[in-house]
Amino acid sequence: MPDSVRLPSSLIPSHYSLEITPNIYGSKENFSFDGFVRIKVVCKEKRDIIWLHSKSLTHTEIRITDSEDRIVPVFSWDLEDKREFLIIAMGESLKPGEIYYIEIKYHGQILNDLKGFFYSSYKDGAGEKYIFSTQMQPTDARKVLPCFDEPALKATFNVTIIRRKELTSLSNMPILRSEERDQELVADVYETTPIMSTYLLAFALGDIDYLQNFTESNIKMRTWSRSSAVEQTKFALELGCKTMTFFEDYFQIKYILPKEDVEDPGRERNVSGLSQPLKRPNLTPTGTL
């Protein structure tokens, strides 16, 4: 058992495959999501226990396999709430130098708290509606998926969001494809991200629309809001394009992602392909976008 709040260095993640199915079609008191994550890791030290981060999640199934798809027996798993660790005990030790895959099915709540996977609301002629977003900084990725939630433990991510057909989803990268799952549901499969920290992972979902423009270096920028307020995002779009161009010129570093989506007033801005809008009081109403 590690003595500090830091994870041991016995496993190093390199890739996450994440699928999120929001359960958001009833009362807001029951908003929740089902998740599945497959984490590719490299073993650095012989261990028969895995430590990773998890907070406020219910884990229903855990499976570990090696690079040849041989199952590593799992004896038990438990949560240490104080340090927000998920501790997995195995029937054999992992071997240094080998690649393993940790697969976890789990369930979580969606709250109106601006942490992890959360919701915000607005009212229109049809009543109260909701937009669902994420805020992973500084250490709330562990509320969305079991993960190695330390900034130095960078990895690539594949994200899939399961949604109803009338909704729109967003994530860090452009959509690779959309697959019908049944008569009502669609799976939006996103392109693989660059190597990045867990706190930069982002996605959003809702009945939303956008305005679009391009920066001088041809980066696609879109500002998203509820459809009735999309025209109010013009200033954010204009200033966002100018700001992107300014910083690319100033630092002589090109933006590494193919697009930037600007969405959700409750989240801090970061270089993740999905960020919050900019407001100018005399041009943009202060109401929820």
Keywords, please?
289 residues; mainly beta; Immunoglobulin-like; Zincin-like; eight-stranded mixed beta sheet; four-stranded antiparallel beta sheet; Aminopeptidase N-like N-terminal domain-containing protein; Peptidase_M1; glycoprotein; aminopeptidase
Can you summarize this structure?
The protein is globular, with a radius of gyration of 20 Å. It contains 1 helix and 19 strands. Mean pLDDT is 91; it is low at 265-271 and 276-289.
Corresponding CATH architecture of the largest domain: Sandwich
Which bin fits the share of residues in helices?
A: under 10%
Radius of gyration: 20 Å
Q: How is the biggest beta sheet arranged?
A: 8 strands, mixed
Number of strands: 19
Region (Disordered): 263-289
GO biological process, one term: peptide catabolic process
Cofactor: Zn(2+)
Main location: membrane
